[in-house]
Amino acid sequence: MESSPYELRKFVPNDLQGIMQINRVCLPENYTDFFFIDLHQRFPETFIVAEEKGKFLGYIMCRIEVGLSNMGLGGLVRKGHVVSIAVMPQARRRGVAQAVINKALEGMKYYKAKQAFLEVRVTNEPAISLYKKLCFEISRTINGYYSDGEDAYVMTKKLS
Ligand code: ACO
Ligand code: ZN
Question: What ligand is nearest to the CA atom of residue 85?
Fold first, then answer.
């Protein structure tokens, strides 16, 4: 039998428990159910899940913010903030993260964002490699960003 590829689609509220489970398994930064639902209600186009045979493989959720462009785009611009992305350990290195980010970047453009950014732990080599592959660049370091004291890189990408 041929293996069917995973499905990429927008988050729906029924996905909440499954997505919160991926978040708990994969990341030390966890959030309340209100936080997930609020991001979904405000920015449904950038909350994407990957699913295969009824099982969740990964997700990305984002927020659109307004701020000064640090990329020479002039004045106040809309920015797409990748709040959280994760892929289950058994589903990694199959391009799932790359696929959910690319779909979320399209959603950011739908919201008229001119650039995308995120914070990542300075020791998180898989994630930093992923973002570099997608042409994000390190723009600065935030000392002690995480609650355990670790520093973050802010990584940024222009949206065309
Ligand atoms: N080592 C080196 N490079 C990597 C690795 C790794 N372990 N994982 C991904 N990459 C790079 C590679 O260039 C890869 O391309 P290749 O496989 O052709 O070499 C490219 O990223 C794309 O990889 P994907 O298969 O799309 O990535 P994956 O689906 O495995 O998910 C992720 C990557 C999300 C970082 C996953 O490892 C994960 O969930 N980690 C734990 C959670 C996490 O750290 N999330 C990011 C936190 S920062 C934030 O949320 C803003
Ligand atoms: Zn952030």
Answer: 1
Ligand 1 closest atom vs CA 27: 42
User: Smallest Cα–Cα separation from 124: which of 152, 89, 99, 149?
Assistant: 152
Check: CB of residue 10 under 8 Å from CB of residue 62.
no
Pairing of strands 48-52, 55-68: antiparallel
Q: Is the CB of 13 under 6 A from ligand 1?
A: no
94 lines ligand 1 (CB under 6 A): yes
The conformational region for residue 149 under phi > 0 = left, psi -120 to 50 = alpha, else beta, is left
Q: Give start and end residues of each alpha helix (H) in 27-124.
A: 33-42, 96-110
Helix (H, G, I), strand (E, B) or coil at 157: strand
As a whole-number percent, the residues of the chain with pLDDT over 90 amount to 91
Predicted TM-score (pTM) of this structure: 0.96
Q: Which amino acid is at 40?
A: H
What pLDDT shows up at residue 121? 98
Residues in the chain: 160
Nearest of 94, 98, 139 to residue 120 by alpha carbon:
139
Task: Assess whether the C-beta atom of 98 lies below 6 angstroms from ligand 1.
Answer: yes
Backbone φ and ψ of 50, nearest 5°? -110, 130
Q: Coil, strand, or helix at residue 148?
A: coil
